[in-house]
Amino acid sequence: MPDGNLPDGKLIGRPAIRVDGRAKVTGRARYASDEVVANPAHAFLVTSSIARGRIRGFDLAAARAVPGVLDILTHENVGDEARKPKPMSGEDTTTTLESDRVWHDGQIIAVVLADSFEAAREAAHKVRVDYEAEAPAATFGSPGAQEEVRKEGEHHDYRVGDAEAAFAAAEVRLDARYGTPTQHHNAIELFTTTCEWRDGKLTVYEPSQFVYGLRGSLAKQLGMEAGDIHVVSRFVGGAFGAKGGITARTAWIAVAARRLNRPVRLVPTRDQGFTIATYRAETRHHVQLGATRDGKLTAFRHEGWEVTSRPSQYNVSGTETTARIYRCPNILTKVNIVHADRNTPGFMRAPPDTPYMFALESAMDELAAALDMDPVELRRINDTQTDPVTGKPYSSRSLMRCFDEGAAHFGWAGRDRRPGTMRDGDWLVGWGCATAAYPANIGPAAARVTLTPEGRARVQIAAHDIGNGAYTVVAMMAADRLGLPIDKVVVEMGGSELPAAGLAAGSSHTAGITHAVAKACEGVRARLAEAAVLSNDGALAGLDPAAVTLAGGTLRGPGGEAEELPKALARVASGVLEVYAENVPQGLPPEAMGKIYEGQMAMSRGHSREDATTYAFGAQFVEVRVHALTREVRAPRAVGAFASPTIINPLTAHSQYMGGMIWGIGAALHEATEIDPQAARYTNDNIAEYLIPVNADVRSIEVIMVPEEDSQVNPLGIKGLGEIGIVGMNAAVANAVWHATGTRVRDLPIRIEDLL
Ligand code: MOS
């Protein structure tokens, strides 16, 4: 891997339109449920109408009598055909096939199969279920909800110095509690699954952020060889974390297709998506900050609580981020989980950092107010180039440059610190800011690159384009490294027949896959160069192979010596040249690549390395306007400044940052899944009542990419950016609302009734 050495950069770093854009807008792009299978039967899910209890039995007579119905699956007739799914983190998840147990409202309890979708749906509504219901616990504070301290496992609690004593002795203290609501992803594409068996082998078409993970998990559930399962997910219509792990539906549909000996297609409804997939858990926080009168932090305590299902230990533990944002000699963190009768939560954009940084960055704003200090200055006083938890240096950390550039663009210097002082007619104006941070994760990946004598390349990698532009960055990287125009590069992704790549999550994917592609391309160049310099007859004979470049269909030596690709290629292959390469990032053992092939998660995380902590940083600035009479809140203006050493495609990078910021505004002001506390049932499980921002809610969103040097984070200098755009936005909005009104809202979302 040529270190830190970006190619002469024909494409990398310049805005490129999506290579798959035309296919997407013309409908040629096949999403999983668009894939063609012969004569599929249609599945419709029957979901539980109670949240806790048992199923005594089913009355299927009326459902079976609907014309076109082929079969109805329940735990009674197929329960022994699959084992429980294992999620990627946590110990267990809700499972629905193997017993009469109901864990949560909306759990899959039967699957109706019919010749048409309409017949399956009609019959599903005629399935009668005899429940033995128990009173469920919906959430925090519900009778029967069970709190426990999170077990140490994937995540860690931190204890540095003596935070309790330091807090008690602090000159200035801030002690506050915060909360964030349940949220659901609501990607446009639904949670579909299509299964087809042929000669004992199974093909699964399902939108996925990790096709190898889906393959490996399903193989375990069905007791099969992973190699006998093929997972296909060429395009994904939005994922945001919800398509990262296996859920119960996949095994149900696989079993259904095997039983019918016919392909089965499931396209569940949007409301079913609220309960058959994962979501962002509700959280609570207790933050204590101790500081000197001049603003230096002396104590930081952060305790979090997260709701999960009864059987799962799932948690996101964002204290791993909040503990390392500011210099502080005394740190104490703790995370608790609360079991309720809910479906199991999972990843959702910046899973740990979004809720936990809301708490920290709100508390920092409260501390700044208590100190009568500018909130940017408070962050400057407590900035550090050293990870406060481990003492390791940050590979790079340009937080204050982000604050300075963001502040300059925003006009922050014109802010009056006193709340309620900036007014424009009937509107109270408030300005807030917050730190954004996200670990610079990177995953293992493998890629195969094929080059033809005519100068066409094919790149194969089981990567995932979840809307982020992954097809495009892979094509850009291969085109630059092979010296080809981008339209001579074909990229194949999203299938478990391809070389493996890790989970498209944790902002790890672009860094992971582009390194593997660059390595394979470098292998192509090296093979051609070595053969050319060792030849007796070529123009490059005897030259140093490392000095030979490949560009424009020509191999070139340092003195202008040149050889056309067909001739160079003929020396190493009579047809095409194919190179396979694997990249295991620093911080992971070599066997991490094998884990990906087995479908397990492996990722070098921001704090998993010995030599440095690797994190991306940014600064968010938001203007809100609160109507003096109606208390309606608007967020007309936001500026986000983000540091990133290498931006591969500024066009799609901009979209990722901007999308995250928009989501942050929505999460602060609109978004929440409401739950009926008696029934433990979601009550706004549709996008009419689940509020996400529309164009009228979003005005000016300015994204600034702050240049940053980092040769340590990884050879190509890539810090992922899919998630950091949302981090800090919730707090920046809440801080701006305080500045406009003097009212501090500590529970999201912020609504009119909070400001009356
Ligand atoms: Mo993302 S929530 O890490 O898929």
UniProtKB/TrEMBL annotation:
Keywords, alphabetical: Molybdenum, Oxidoreductase
Protein name: Xanthine dehydrogenase family protein molybdopterin-binding subunit
Domain of life of the organism encoding this protein: Bacteria
Organism: Roseomonas elaeocarpi
Matches recorded under SMART domains: Ald_Xan_dh_C
Aldehyde oxidase/xanthine dehydrogenase a/b hammerhead domain segment(s): 26-135
Cross-referenced InterPro entries: Ald_Oxase/Xan_DH_a/b, Ald_Oxase/Xan_DH_a/b_sf, Ald_Oxase/xanthine_DH-like, AldOxase/xan_DH_MoCoBD1, AldOxase/xan_DH_MoCoBD2, AldOxase/xan_DH_Mopterin-bd_sf
SUPFAM superfamilies assigned to the protein according to its UniProt record, in alphabetical order: CO dehydrogenase molybdoprotein N-domain-like, Molybdenum cofactor-binding domain
Lineage, top ranks: Bacteria, Pseudomonadati, Pseudomonadota, Alphaproteobacteria, Acetobacterales
Pfam family, one: MoCoBD_2
